[in-house]
Amino acid sequence: MNSKYPFFKYVTGESKIHLMNSKMKIIWFLITLLAIILINDYVSLLLFSLFLTFVMGFTKIDFLAYLSNALSVWVMYLFVFVIVFLITLNINLAIISGIKLLLIVTLFLILTFTTSLSEIAWGFECTFIKLKKIKVPVSKISLRIAMDIKFIATLFEESKSIRKSMAYRGVPYKKYGIASFKRMIVPVISISYKTSRRMVKVMRLRFYGNSKRTNYHENKVTSFDKWLVTIPVLLIYFVIWLGWC
Amino acid sequence: MAILSINNLTFRYKNKFVFDNFNLEVERGSWVTIAGPNGAGKTTLVKILAGLEKSYADITIFNKPLNKKNMYDIRREIGFVFDNPDNFFACETVEDELAFSLENLGVFPNTIKKKIKDVAKILKLDDLLKENPCDLSGGEKQKVALATALMLEPRILVLDEALLMIDVKERDEILKTLKEYNKQKRVTILSFTHNLEEAIYSDRLIILNKGVITIDGAFPEVFSEERVMRKIGLEVPFAIELSEKLKVYNIIDHMELDLERLVSLIWK
Questions:
Q1: For residue A198, what pLDDT is reported?
Q2: Which residues of chain A neighbour B112 with C-beta distances below 8 Å?
Q3: Is some CB atom of chain A closer than 8 A to the CB atom of B261?
Q4: Which chain B residues have a beta carbon less than 8 Å from that of A201?
Q5: What SS3 class is residue A33?
Q6: B217 φ, ψ to 5°?
Q7: Which of A50, B53, B95, B201 could form a disulfide with B47 if both were Cys (CB 3.0 to 4.6 A apart)?
Q8: Domain boundaries, given as residue ranges, for chain B
Q9: Number of A:B CB contacts under 8 A?
Q10: The model scores a pTM over 0.80
């Protein structure tokens, strides 16, 4: 993990991706996520990898920050690779699944590095606002999603501080390993539980959930936003066309 | 007229009574400091007022009973500043943090922008607006938490050890600013602390010990009960202690709370 750019933590900036309209950014995120989940060949993976690299360039955040954070969870990719291989016995599918997970993590990194918690919540709320008509608690769900994303960052930070405090007490500092994991799991679960309860209280105290909510950072939809949303759609068309050919 | 009244408050924590039949009334526009050692019940009382702890009591704020129905209306006129600001940050930049409550209340972005500018100027936060509040120093975090409360333009400002991590010079400046705020806007300030030096601008000082009001009086006359304060583990401010002794020797004729003014009095 990169200490300057912690996992899933917002990095302040004025890049085009930072200044995107919240709703457009969430739509872009969801379309790209769906596309990555659906693709199943190396050419499509390459296309979407190039697309995400192109977007990363626009964020003006150090490329190494993405790389080190994405690779810090290599165990997950390996796990997915092994599981898919054991189930299907298809090495190609296992590799594709591992790479897909890497792309999904990168996509989440782009979103969380460039979007604050409140903007993520607001973006989801604006995207699914129509569901309010059929009594879906959109505000609560949006906040829940934003909290969960932020929560991953908290978990990583907490586990890091627990490892450090154990090292201060003389427990051998091992970055990875079952013994280290076993020692950390109880405090991490306990802290996570407390953090989630605290966050709910904070939101209640700060009036979250009001239907008349406004957005301080309401950025206008620019042609860049429209293009960014259009590109993954065009890529999907292209991938489908390739499949037919 | 009382803006806040607590009657017959009973609160238990793990079968131990924190408050048993506790009563308190706070006048509108006053600055009341509730001081006490650790375990006196200060933070519990703040949490009860914020509706974060359930209790058996008859609590009235702005002439409305504090219950589930009125909670939202009451809360939007009270600014809470807690001892550990880290626990209450919800956003990733100071600017967003200041805007967050007002966004939720449906205030227009232009009005929020103006308020952020004003509050940031008062608390000297202009240079920190783009920073992540979690990455700031302890004192800066508390200033951000205070600014967040001031953004709401509250009728009551509740400070729970809110100036604990701020250095002495800056703390005094903030206290002076709060006093002006208290006078000009008639904001009621309810300050919970274990540091009696934070009480120098208070109109009334209440000493709380194990959930019971031990001393309650106007400031600074209340310091005549210095011994009781020491007994429960509270440190009497140096200026007060020195003033008391100088009065005994007729060097000064009144209590002086401000150390600088006290020095100039002795110098004369």
A1: 75
A2: 214, 216
A3: no
A4: 52
A5: helix
A6: -165, 175
A7: B53
A8: 2-235, 237-268
A9: 75
A10: no
